[in-house]
Design a protein that fits this description.
Blueprint: H1 2-33, H2 38-66, H3 68-88, H4 92-120, H5 123-150, H6 156-161, H7 164-176, H8 181-186, H9 190-200, H10 205-219, H11 235-250, H12 253-266, H13 272-296, H14 302-326, H15 332-348, H16 352-361, H17 367-419, H18 428-436
Helix pairs in contact: 1-3, 1-4, 1-5, 1-7, 1-12, 2-3, 2-4, 2-17, 3-4, 3-7, 4-5, 5-13, 9-10, 11-16, 11-17, 12-13, 12-17, 13-15, 14-15, 14-17, 16-17
The structure holds beta-D-glucopyranose (BGC).
């Protein structure tokens, strides 16, 4: 039962990835249908992260008011309508509005689905099930790239229209989902909460009662205040979580995810379809390396993965910049390999680690506030990178832009060295105690 529940909720992650990725292969066709300046193209593309920013701001309140399940149902309807509108858009303005709407659904689902998964799963399986959500995002991206490749002849309208299919699956699946037992209990529906939990725990009454008592206990935890996040005590946690989230976006990942075919073409690929096929490769590497990261993150630790991944990212980005500056025709394959290496390096480090760390380092009373601020910062930087990439590409060329991202990743190494704690194998309570005693950054070599 719990796997089914998590699989349906992870469908929201799939949609998230699909709607992020689909634009990559659509861009060439869109440029033929509409005339767009680099700024207009950037804004139309970045409408998704901009909408998601708004979605992330309202998601928590919606989920508390209406329940997790109803919000997921609502997000599925918005995904459906947004995809439909994008596919029939008669102008760039309507397309931008459609993408804004899709973005809102992504922002809402991006917060509510992991919350729902973590509230319905038991402690033992929680980490793995939440990580499945990140994996679902990367699968959504690669499926979108494949759809782009296969439907190239039919055109961009069909690519966007495909987004309606997973939206219907999410809607139908959410109809059979039970409401989160934690939300039911918090709203005072104790009997319903017990009923759902019994189904989720396959009728094990002892486990069920212990969990219900735990839920009642956490409901007593007083909520913190916004300004506590900047207090001396909590600051190291806030700096680590926010810093990693900013790095995740400023490392340039979404310039690649959203514009990969354009990047391939600017490094020397001739045809649209060859560029989109290479993009499918990017998506596949992203999925495979995310699985590798899921296996390694509790063995090697967060910091080691960050060091390995960031070093790989710096080297591969510098390679692309060097090829752009000095490589002639025939060097396109070197850039392609370097771009794949960059994605692989990202997927083992800055992809999953900031999400994991964000859910670990804040004290319980400030967790949802801290996560809220970090998400808004994440979407804000995502928006800026996606908006400005076409403009920067025009002004500085692919070499200049990649050099900038390489510098950010190099700074990321320094930041990891000095500001990122090691939380591998440490319980959430122990992390909170370390923070309380000003020892969060101790044991960084662990
Ligand atoms: C990031 C997304 C990004 C994705 C790529 C996630 O960790 O939050 O912005 O598109 O990774 O796989």
């Amino acid at each position: 039962m719990i796997y089914l529940v998590a699989a349906i909720a992870a469908m929201a992650g799939f949609l998230f990835g699909f709607d992020e990725g689909v634009i990559a292969g659509a861009e060439a066709g869109l440029n033929k249908t509409f005339t767009m300046s680099p700024l207009i193209e950037g804004f139309m593309t970045a409408a998704v992260p901009l909408g998601a920013l708004a979605g992330a701001v309202i998601a928590g309140r919606l989920a508390d008011r209406f329940g997790r399940r109803r919000v997921l149902l609502g997000a599925a309807v918005i995904f459906f309508l947004g995809s439909l509108l994008a596919s029939i858009a008669p102008s760039v303005t309507v397309l931008t509005i459609a993408r804004l709407v899709l973005g809102i659904a992504i922002g809402v689902a991006g917060m509510v689905a992991p919350l729902y998964i973590s509230e319905t799963s038991d402690a033992r399986r929680r980490g793995g099930l939440v990580a499945t959500y990140q994996l679902a995002i990367t699968i959504g991206i690669v499926v979108a790239y494949l759809v782009d490749y296969l439907l190239e002849a039919l055109g961009w309208r069909w690519m966007f229209a495909c987004g309606t299919v997973p939206a219907v699956v999410l809607f139908a699946g959410s109809l059979i989902l039970p409401e989160s037992p934690r939300w039911l209990a918090l709203k005072g529906h104790a009997e319903q909460a017990r009923g759902v939990l019994m189904r989720l725990r396959e009728g094990d009454a002892t486990v069920c009662e212990a969990e219900l008592a735990g839920i009642a206990g956490t409901a007593q935890t007083p909520q913190g205040r916004w300004r506590d996040l900047a207090s001396r005590k909590v600051r190291p946690a806030a700096v680590a979580a926010l810093g990693l989230y900013l790095l995740q976006q400023l490392s340039g990942i979404n310039a690649v995810i959203y514009y990969a075919p354009e990047i391939f073409k600017s490094t020397g690929f001739e045809s649209d379809s060859a560029a989109v096929l290479a993009t499918v490769g990017v998506g596949a590497v992203n999925v495979v390396m995310t699985v590798v990261a899921m296996r390694l993150v509790d063995r090697l630790g967060r910091r080691k993965l960050l060091f390995i991944g960031l070093t790989g990212a710096v080297l591969s980005l510098l390679t692309i910049a060097a090829v752009a500056a000095w490589g002639g025709a025939g060097w396109a394959f070197v850039s392609a390999i370097a771009l794949m290496a960059y994605i692989g390096a990202f997927a083992v480090s800055l992809g999953p680690v900031p999400h994991i760390m964000m859910s670990e380092v804040f004290p319980l009373a400030l967790r949802s506030m801290g996560m809220g601020i970090a998400s808004v910062a994440n979407w804000g930087c995502n928006f800026l990178v996606v908006l400005l990439f076409p403009v920067a590409l025009g002004a500085f060329g692919i070499g200049g832009v990649m050099l900038f991202f390489a510098v950010v990743c190099a700074l990321g190494l320094l930041f990891t060295l000095r500001r990122v704690p090691e939380t591998r194998g440490v319980s959430l309570e122990e992390i909170e105690q370390r923070l309380d005693e000003g020892r969060l950054l101790e044991g960084r070599s662990g």
